Amino acid sequence: MIAAGHAADLGANVILLEKMNRPGRKLGITGKGRCNISNSAPLEIFIEKTKPDGRFLRSAFSTFFSDDIVEYMNLIGVKTMEERGGRIFPVNGSATEIVKKMEIWLAGKNAKIVTNTRAKCLIINESKIRGIIALTGKSGKRVEKRYFADRVLIATGGLSYPATGSTGDGYRLAESAGHTITSLLPSLVPLESSSPYLSILSGLEMKNIKVTVLVDNRKRYEEFGEMTFTSFGVTGPVILSLSREIVNHLEKKQSIEISIDLKPALEYKKLDNRILRDLNTRGKEELKNILRGLLPPPLVDVALRETKLAGYKKGNQVSSAERRILAEWLKGFRIIITGYRPFKEAIITSGGLDINEIDQRNMESKLVKGLYFAGEILNLDAPTGGYNLQIAFSTGWVAAEGIFKE
To answer: Which residue, of 311, 340, 369, is where some domain finishes?
Structure first.
């Protein structure tokens, strides 16, 4: 949408072919319906966080970055605000409102939107784009139609949230043009576990915890923040951020455990002193009740099972060895990870169009003249926090400029 509007504004004759019955379906559900537009982090942080090679985006970010998308949002009537972690949201917290404002903006630029139209194949002659063949109309009544053009931009998204139209059409079109598609996996996705405690912990939200990922029992990654237990495993910001690497290791059949530090603000000695103080102060109470001062109720039962400590034991009867076992568990509660949820539950797709086959200055194919790509279809992805939408906005914007300047 942003590419179509910007290209039209520059003077191109633009037709936006939309697979669904209205544009921006995926944009309308981002950020849990609030739309995390971008992030105020510096360009170098964006590049560092983008995998597998964020350096590809240096030119695009230098042309159109977070301050530019904020200015654009203000232009179309969307006021923004910055929240914790540099996340940028619309003040009214409505992703669908952004979609509506973008539609109005597109109409004002005379960019024509044709809905219920799916690209079937590209028309290519002598390594130059000539247009596309599309199927238009509602399901069951679609007819084939040719759209001739000397510039075509494919911005079809990936495979995540297929109900919004992201079903991998762009990968098929890119491959037909000779492009390479890397392995496609769900990313920013909840993880599955074989833990016997999920029925007890499901729905429990944990804040200010540290999660360390162990691959084949070796520490590899860690994140600090929030996570949530579910009936199938774990999710939440920390888990989603770590999921990209975890999914890749699971695909390699490596064993994965996460170690949860429930008290990361307390180093081991201070935590031990805290436990000792609680045991002394409430020495005549049972351990299971004392632990409620340290843990949410569902975790108390898990702690007692894991440590094999007797919940009925009085606080003043707990030995120093038992106290050490408890402290070690609080600093390293382990959960085995066995799998990940499907694409329909993933926020983005990891993998995609090989960026080595794309000109980073304008997003044009190096194989087919006049063919451009932008957004999630590219083999570029980043953590939560507004990074992925900024990648889409930036690549779409520079693609539009490349189309006009050619």
So the answer is: 340
Buried b (16+ CB within 10 A) or exposed e, 139-163: eeeeeeeebebebbbbbbbbbbbbe
Sheet with 371-373: list strands edge to edge: 152-154, 371-373, 364-365, 358-359
- The answer on 255 and 365 residing in a single domain is no
Is the domain of 68 the same as that of 115? yes
- HSE on the CB side for 131, CA within 13 Å? 9
For the entire predicted model, the pTM comes to 0.92
Residues 362-379: tens digit of each pLDDT: 999 999 999 999 999 999
Neighbouring CB atoms inside 10 A of 173's CB total: 21
Contact between 277 and 290 under an 8 Å Cβ cutoff? The reply is no
Beta bridge partners, 222, equal 212
Taking all residues of the chain, what is their mean pLDDT, rounded to a whole number? 96
Does 153 share its domain with 268?
A: no
Rounded-to-integer distance, Cα 397 and Cα 133, Å:
25
- Which one-letter amino acid corresponds to residue 18? E
Domain shared by 154 and 85, yes or no:
yes
For the domain that residue 375 is a member of, what is the CATH number?
3.50.50.60
Judgement on whether residues 169 and 248 belong to the same structural domain of the protein:
no
**Domain match, 162 and 194 both:** no
Nearest CA to 264 out of 218, 306, 212 is that of 212
Dihedral class, residue 110 (left if φ above 0, else alpha if ψ from -120 to 50, else beta): left
The arithmetic mean of pLDDT across residues 132-154, rounded, is: 93
Q: State both tokens at 164.
A: 């919004």
Secondary structure E strands in 237-369: 256-261, 333-340, 348-350, 358-359, 364-365
Distances (CA, A) of 387 to 38, 46, 87, 209: 6, 7, 9, 23
State whether 311 and 368 are in the same domain: no
Contacts of 226 (CB under 8 A, 6+ apart): 205, 206, 207, 208, 209, 236, 237, 238
The residue range of the domain holding 297 is 190-340
Last residue of one domain, picked from the residues 307, 340, 373: 340
pLDDT tens per residue, range 281-326: 999 999 999 999 999 999 999 999 999 999 999 999 999 999 999 9
**219-244: pLDDT as tens digits:** 999 999 999 999 999 999 999 999 99
Domain tally, the chain? 2
Question: Tell me, what amino acid is at 102?
Answer: M
